[in-house]
Amino acid sequence: MKLIAAVDKNWGIGKDNDLLFHIKEDMRFFKEKTVGNVIIVGRKTLESFPASKPLPDRKNIVITRDTDYKCDDCIIVHSTDELFEVIKNYKENVYVCGGAEIYSLLLPYCDTAYITKVDAIADAQKFMPNLDEFDGWKLDTDGETQTNGKYNFKFCTYKNELQ
Ligand SMILES: NC(=O)c1ccc[n+]([C@@H]2O[C@H](COP(=O)([O-])OP(=O)(O)OC[C@H]3O[C@@H](n4cnc5c(N)ncnc54)[C@H](OP(=O)(O)O)[C@@H]3O)[C@@H](O)[C@H]2O)c1
Predict the structure, then answer these.
(1) Residues in Cβ contact with 138 at an 8 Å cutoff, skipping those fewer than 6 apart
(2) Which end of the chain is more exposed for a tag (fewer CB within 10 A), N or C?
(3) Ligand 1 center–CA 36 separation, angstroms
(4) What is the whole-number distance in angstroms between the Cα of residue 98 and the centre of ligand 1?
């Protein structure tokens, strides 16, 4: 299982149930990785998508504790046990796509994290664990800094040595 996220310099990921940055190159990278594969999101992240709808061309698994929760074209699970029962049937890559609660919950089960590091400090309310200081996680690829004119950013890959 892999994790994918865009973070600011403080590993901030979100504010007001929205992303901190809308960087076209990062959106393209996210799409390249996840289309045709399986994504796992928390209920709040699902509801942050346009019209609260699942992302197209991917299997969307949504985690919630609400046993009455319904969403068309999503697979709903209520615990990590239920999640693992569901994903063992898939041959596709499985990406943990946030938000903060779900990154923390599933980080120990991920072998790789694709982190887009944005060289900015946003006014974040939600954060993911800082993988530079997280036991077992090591920077594997430190991408070249790119710019979109507004932000400098780079695509980094971390590996979980405990997996
Ligand atoms: N920068 C990025 O790459 C990125 C990516 C994705 C999201 N985000 C941002 O992250 C923020 C949302 O993160 P968040 O932490 O507020 O919400 P979240 O992780 O998306 O969803 C939290 C919800 O997940 C469910 N949940 C959590 N732990 C569970 C467990 N053990 N078992 C069953 N269900 C569980 C609960 O749903 P119920 O309340 O329904 O029970 C909980 O309210 C937004 O700002 C979003 O834009 C950023």
Answers:
(1) 158, 159, 161
(2) C
(3) 22
(4) 6
When divided into structural domains, the chain yields a total of 1
Could you read off the pLDDT of 136-150 as tens digits, one per residue? Answer: 999 999 999 999 999
CA of 149 to the centre of ligand 1 (A): 30
The β-bridge relationship of strands 112-118 and 152-160 is: antiparallel
Query: Does any ligand 1 atom lie closer than 6 A to the CB of residue 115?
Result: no
Residue 84 gets the label, from left (phi > 0), alpha (psi -120 to 50) or beta, of alpha
For residue 20, give both structure tokens. 């901190």
User: For residues 1 and 34, what is the distance between their CA atoms, to the nearest angstrom?
Assistant: 12
What pLDDT, in 10s, does the model give residues 64-89? 999 999 999 999 999 999 999 999 99
Spatial distance between the Cα atoms of 73 and 99, rounded to a whole number of angstroms: 20
CATH number where 110 lies: 3.40.430.10
Give me ligand 1 centre to Cα 101, in Å: 5
Question: Is the Cβ atom of 79 under 6 angstroms away from ligand 1?
Answer: yes
Residue 94 is part of which domain span? Answer: 2-160
